[in-house]
Every structure is written in C-alpha cells, then in structure tokens.
Amino acid sequence: MSFMFNPYPYDDPKASNPIDLSEKSIQSITCGNANVIKELCNQATKGVLIIDGYIGIDFDATITPLKQELGHAAFLDIASCYKTQAQLDQMLDPYLAVDSSMDPVSLFGRIYHGEIDDLLDKTKLADLLEQITQSDKPVIVYGCGSGCQSVRQLADRIVYLDIAPKNIVLRAKAGKIKCIGDETNRPFKQLLRHLYYVEYEVSMRLRQELLNDKKLIAYIDSNDPEEHKFIPKLAFEEIFEHLVNRPFRCKPCYIEGVWGGDYIKNLRNLPEKMRNCAWVFDLIPNEVSLVAKTSNMTFEFPYVTFYRKMGIKLMGKDTVEKYGGVFPIRFNYDDGVNGGNMSIQVHPTRKYNNENFNEPFQQDESYYIVHTTGSRTYMGIRDKYEPKEFYDAVQKSEKDGSEVDYEKYVNSIVSRQGRQFLLPGGTLHSSGVNQVVLEIGCWTVGSYTFKMYDYLRTDLDGTRRPIHSKHGINVIDTSRNEEYVKTKLVPERKILDKGDDWTEFIVGEHEKMFFQLRCIELYTQVQSKTNGKFHVLNLVEGQKARIESLDDSSAAYEIEYLEMVVVPACLGRYRIINMGAGPITIHKTLLKSE
C-alpha cells in the first residue's frame, strides 16, 4: 500500500536487524529460485495448493518453471475470473472519478472498502470452482486473489508471496504491473492512483487473512527476483517473534525532490547519482520494510505485513483496537539544506478526509528542527491580511502563473535546532530552505498535501507542480493566526522528569493530536518503560546510542545520529545508553494516555 511515485532504487545496507533463529528453522528455509520451485513441487503433489501474493508480484517467474516440473498438474489462474476492465472501470468509477476543477492532475480518489471477491465475475468463478472439484489431478490455483474465500474453502495448502512497497513501485514504473482486470497498461501515475485506492486495500486485507489462515504452509520473500526465499510457516512466525521482542529499525526509502537538499545524502553516504534527497521515509508505516538478518540469510518484509501480523505485541491491545490495527504514527526527514522551500501547503482534517477520500485519520504533522542555518518555518496566516486576499492571489497564480508574495500573507518563525513546531490538520505551513526537520504525523498514506503556492516551479520530470487551491481553501483553519501559532503551536519545553545526569522534557502536545513528543537529554543512561504502548526513538543530537531491554540486554539496537528505532509495547522496561563522546538528545514519540 504505497503512494511513493519516485523512490530511489537504493537499499540502505545499515538498516537491518540481527536475529538468532533456531537451527530447526534455519534448516527449514529454502533459498534460491530453483530450490524454491522444488519445494513448491513437493507441496503440490496432491490436493489443492493456492499460490497467492500481493498485487505487483511477478507470478510468471514462479508459475512458468513450476509448470515445466509439474506437467501432470492442473494450473488455474485466478486472473481468468476477474471482471473485465470495462466492468471494473464502471464499478469503481465512484472511487476514481475525475474532477479537474478540484484535482487538476487526478491525484486523489476514494478508498475502496470492498473485498477481492467483489472484483471477480461470479460465473467465471463458479466455472473455476467446478474445475477444482472435478479434477483428478493435483490443482494449483495462482495469482493475486487466488486465496479468495470460495477457493480457500477448497484448498489444502496456501503459500503467500510478498514484496516490499518500494519494489512494487519500481516494478510499476518499469511497466511490469497491471491493475486487476486490465488488458492494457495504464500510464504510471494513473496506475499508481488506481492501485492505491483499490488494489492495495483489497490485497492488504486478503494478505492479513491468509497469513493468519491455518492452511498457510509458507511465506515467500520475493523481493530479490533472483533469490526467492521459501520460509515455512513456523520459521516465518519465529522471525516475527524475534523482531517484535526487541527494538528494531526499519529500512528507509529515499526520494529526490525539487526542493531537496544534501545534508542526509552526505550523512548517510547515499549514491552520488542522486540529484538530492528531499524525503527520507524512515518510518512511513505503509511505505517501508523490515529487514531481518541471520549469519547467512537476509529477509525483507513489508512493515505493514509485520504490524498487521504482530499488532498486539508491537502496539498494545488498546492501540490496535482504537486505531483499527494500523501503526498510527509516521516519521520522515525533510531535507532542504542547499535546496529550497517546501510548497506553502495545508493538510485536511479528519472530517474532510473521511467525507472526500474515505480516509479514517486527520493529517496532523509536526516539525522538529534537527539542523538549520538561519532558516524559517512558515505557520499560519498573518494577522494584518484577510485570508480572502491570500486566496485570491493563490487562485490567480494557479490560472495565469503570476507570482504570489507569500511572505506577505504567511506567518513565519525563526527556526533553531531543537525547536518543536506543531501542525494539526488545517494549519497553513511550509519548511523553509536550509534546514532538516524530523517530521512526525498521524497515519496517512495518500498524498493529501494541498499545495497553495509552489513558487511556479516545475517538478523534476519537467511538469508543473500541481496546486490544489480549492481543497486547500476548504480546509485552512483561519483561526491559526500569529497569536494562535505563537501560543499553541510553538510550545516551550516542560520538564517531565529528571535524574542525576538526564532530563526528560515534553516538547510538543496539542489537544487535536493523539501523540506526545518528548526529548531526553542525557550523559550516561536512562531507564524507561513502554506501559503497553510502543515508543519511537530518534537520536537527534550526539554520536551513538544503544537501546536495550532491561530484562534481556541482548535484545538491543544501536543507532547513530538521525537514525530511529521502534520500541515495541511488549518490551516493557528498557534503557537508553549513551555510546559516544559528549551528551546526546533522544527525541521520543508515544501515544497519549487516555
């Protein structure tokens, strides 16, 4: 489930998590495509085998050699049961309708909450089911959706192929993915919109069902097209148990942008060929992946697969129930050092998101300044001007390309390292040039950034950056003026607790935002506990820190400057140890207590 248009094709080698698997599990795992095919052959000698997988999986790479080995078996492609492209386009039009006045580039839609079965033709499906029941041969039903309820009832065994969101997008850009039921390829941006609002939702729900089904026998990590990994169910569950019982780090995605900078590119030694690095998706829950490593094997899982499977241990029972099973907070870095300003923008409220896009959350954000050189952060509307004057200037610019004197209308505040800004949905804002911000927000996946003004820039592909002034005007909270920003959105830090050589501060909280932001300044070490909720820790000042369980010191992760880890709810008591010279500062995010 991803809305990344341009992830850079780079795999960060540092972002992995060491695990100690039992010898039994290690011996049960099969690596290499030819060996995986042999293992699948062993599972397909009799009965009905389902080979399902997430949208975007290259099923041909598995099924073609499997057919060569199992000429006596019956192979049934669930794609033969999809409704036609014309039928699906008509059925899904309410979710993907085009409104050029509100959305000039057709970026938005409405989340489709149906099931995979709704995309199947009942007559075609009935024919496939009859072929299964009448067959006197082993049957392999394959493809995205082959694990639908009616086929699953007839199955003996299920295998699931999975792939990280970044790799799905890269396959989509290469023209290797079609929407369910499509006979022809769609333009990339149209494809990604369709996948996000329809296929990702349907596939994600089905994946969760299948990975919890008693008939599941194995999970296949298919991220490396040349090195699939067949992971039996017990080994798969053991890997996830190891990960959820220790602090862990997700594998980031790096994205270039028209305003992108070079601070993190230099810090993390990103490829020279990258033009810049605007966004670092360190923990956007539905975009990143989780890498686990043994002494001789490496596995990669979509983070959404992990948090959906291990939700209660990871987030706590109350959190899972309250937020519908999703990991409810997202984290990324925005880097404009030697780059440019972000667009002047605004994000929607919960009511607007739900009514217009079928999305469940308000898009709240926050900026913590980790590096700045004389920068400013833009927040709210200046008191001396009527909002309508700004709106008129923005809409005129959208039509005729005229410049907007944004400094005249948009309030700005001097940035300084360690300053926390709060941006509840409806707040007009922008991050200024020459700063790096740690952006923390509530769970949002779609690109609900309503740009009001973008300095008449073209994007990296040469197209004009989209403006969504009508949506923006609908959601801007005009009460967020200079006084409100100063008193409510740029809080002074408050001491929460302290010891001999550490102090914990509350640096940000707001009545409309469900998470709290803290900073811990320490010289040696400090203890903490999760109290049944996950924590996310970022090393925002200093060289190195170790986060380890108090009950098992081997359950630990060491982070360097600007790296972040998740502390699962089930970990309970843990400590943060300064591993470098000089004091450190840890930025800590947690859900508010009721």
Describe the structure.
A hairpin with a 6-residue loop joins strand 23 (about 500-510) and strand 24 (about 515-520). The chain is of the alpha+beta class and about 600 residues long. The chain contains 18 helices and 31 strands. The chain folds into three domains: about 15-245, P-loop containing nucleotide triphosphate hydrolases (Rossmann fold, 3-Layer(aba) Sandwich); about 255-285 and about 325-490, Jelly Rolls; about 495-590, Sandwich (Jelly Rolls), CATH 2.60.120. Helix content is about 30%, strand content about 25%.
Supply the key terms.
alpha+beta, Rossmann fold, Jelly Rolls, 594 residues, 27% strand, 3 domains, 31 strands, six-stranded antiparallel β-sheet, globular
Q: Distance between termini?
A: 30 Å
Spatial sequence of strands, sheet with the most strands = 2-8-7-6-3-5-4
Q: CATH superfamily membership of the largest domain, which one?
A: P-loop containing nucleotide triphosphate hydrolases
Could you estimate the helical fraction of the residues in percent? Answer: 25-40%
The CATH architecture assignment of the largest domain turns out to be 3-Layer(aba) Sandwich
Number of strands: 31
Q: How many helices in DSSP terms?
A: 18
Taking pLDDT < 50 over at least 5 consecutive residues as the criterion, the unreliable ranges are: none
Average predicted confidence as pLDDT: 97
CA-based gyration radius: 25 Å
Helix/sheet category: alpha+beta
Gross morphology: globular
The level 1 CATH classification of the largest domain is Alpha Beta
